[in-house]
Each structure stands twice: as C-alpha cells, then as structure tokens.
Write a structure and sequence with these properties.
The protein is built from three helices and nine strands. With 138 residues, it is of the alpha/beta class. The relative contact order is 0.28. Residues 10-138 form the Carbohydrate kinase PfkB domain.
Length: 138
C-alpha cells in the first residue's frame, strides 16, 4: 500500500452532543456526548489507514490540548510530524438532533507564528520526498 502524508492546517477537537431537538434560547440536555480529535486531514488519514495505507500526519497543534491528538496518533499508529504552537487547538461543537439535523459551532484556530510556519514548511520539505501521496487539508 501507499505511504501517505496528510497535512491538517487547522485540526479541531470535536465535541458531539446528541439531543432530541435543539431549543434555541432554552436549556438543552444531551442524551450522549463524544469528544474526538478531528480535522479534514486527520479524517482523511483515518480512512486511508483503514484501507491499509501507512500514514504520517502533520500540521499545527496547540500544546495546551494536544493529548487527544497524541492518543489518536498512537492508537492509529500514525507518525506524528505536527508542529506544536502555543495555546489550544480549536474546539468545535456539533449538536446532532434525533431528526438528523446537525448544527455546527466551529471555534477559531490558534495563532500560528511565522517561525512555526517556517518550521512546518522545512519539515514537510525534508520528509515529503519519501511519500507516494501528500494530502493538504484545512
């Protein structure tokens, strides 16, 4: 199978709440709650890993809440090439109603310094030739 690098420039911690029906302006109680490391590039990486490909993941991660991402990388056997930046990786809230309607609230990503950007560019430039495919995602 292929050796693939995915770049996730703005990963997120997704908090998914399941509820009957969202009542705006009211207190809503969820039936279930799930938190997981996500982002388009990481979601693609998980599908590609399920198909048997070897994955390396890279991008920017906030150091204040990197643990969920590191747990995902370890569990899925992803090689971690993320550049750590000060602060938190963004958090998103997904409210899934029993009707199937989903409401997303997406938070802002961390500030990424010029030095961190250059560090990621240098890292990718160094490792990219070893991959069959590179996926760039938001």
């Amino acid at each position: 199978m292929a050796k693939i690098l995915t770049l996730t420039m703005n990963p997120a911690l997704d908090l998914t709440l399941q509820l009957g029906q969202l009542e705006l302006g009211q207190v809503n109680r969820s039936n279930a709650m799930l938190t997981h490391a996500a982002g388009k590039g990481l979601n693609v990486a998980q599908v590609l890993a399920d198909l048997g490909h070897e994955l390396t993941v890279a991008g920017f991660l906030g150091i204040d809440n990197q643990q969920a991402f590191e747990a995902l990388f370890e569990r899925r056997h992803f090689v971690d090439e993320f550049v750590r930046v000060p602060g938190e990786t963004r958090s998103n809230i997904k409210m899934a109603e029993s009707s199937g309607r989903i409401t997303d609230l997406n938070g802002p990503g961390p500030q990424v310094s010029e030095a961190a950007q250059q560090a990621l560019f240098a890292r990718v430039e160094q490792i990219a030739p070893g991959f069959d495919v590179v996926v760039v995602a938001g």
